[in-house]
Amino acid sequence: MGRKRLSANLLRLLSSQNGIEIVGVLTDSHLQGSPTAAAAKELGLPLYTFDTALEAMKEGRLKYDLGLSVLYWRKLRDEFLTVPRLGTINFHPALLPEYKGTGGYNLAIMDELSEWGSTAHYVDASIDTGEIIEVDRFPIDSSVETAQSLERKTMQALEPFAQRIIARAVEAQAKLPTTPNIGGRYVSRDEMEAMKQIRDGDDVEKKIRAFWFPPYDGAYVEINGQKYTLINRQLLEEVAPKDSTSLFAGKANA
């Protein structure tokens, strides 16, 4: 179960390993050009939507030992929780138990953290609340990161981390040791979107970086009912054409 290029890379890796049988791939049915769907078709693997997978499990046509959720967007329920005898491992691109739900990259910058990472945990009936297998951490400088740059670094670190955890689970053929997933903050998508509005007293520069993730709307001001995303000089220079000949590009020397 997954989306984005990371899931496709892991799918290709697992399909090449002896002793691992992939019985199905569940990915974004609402997106065109899903990298995970393309990889599944390339490898000749059965492709499911959430509903068709659930139906197949209810009818006994889909059985598996271990589920893997890599950046999958839907809450798992019913047979997704009961069919796999070894459970389902989710790879959450944030630190648990502290940062549940969405908006992790944004909050890492807003909270001025010095480290970030990903968490492997078992899936239960709620969101990001299952027992923690391991947290993988790496240092960051939140004074210069954007949500986009932090996402990129997290994906780079998450791939080898996921490979290692999956290898452990396959070798053990049993549930891995865990620690409780207690406390922390859950942020919904609506709450994350509301955080983007710049209000009196906000650190505007920090908020611009914390919500910079084009093509999505970033930190914004609202004027006459219209939202306007803000950009600072650093980001403007990053998105400018590298071959720009503007007299005002970059810093001028006296």
Automatic annotation (TrEMBL):
Residues 61-156 form the Formyl transferase N-terminal domain. Coiled coil: none annotated. GO terms for molecular function: methionyl-tRNA formyltransferase activity. InterPro entries: Formyl_transf_N, Formyl_transf_N_sf. Keywords: Transferase. One of its GO terms (cellular component) is cytosol. This is Methionyl-tRNA formyltransferase family protein. It comes from Neisseria sicca VK64. The lineage of its organism: Bacteria, Pseudomonadati, Pseudomonadota, Betaproteobacteria, Neisseriales.
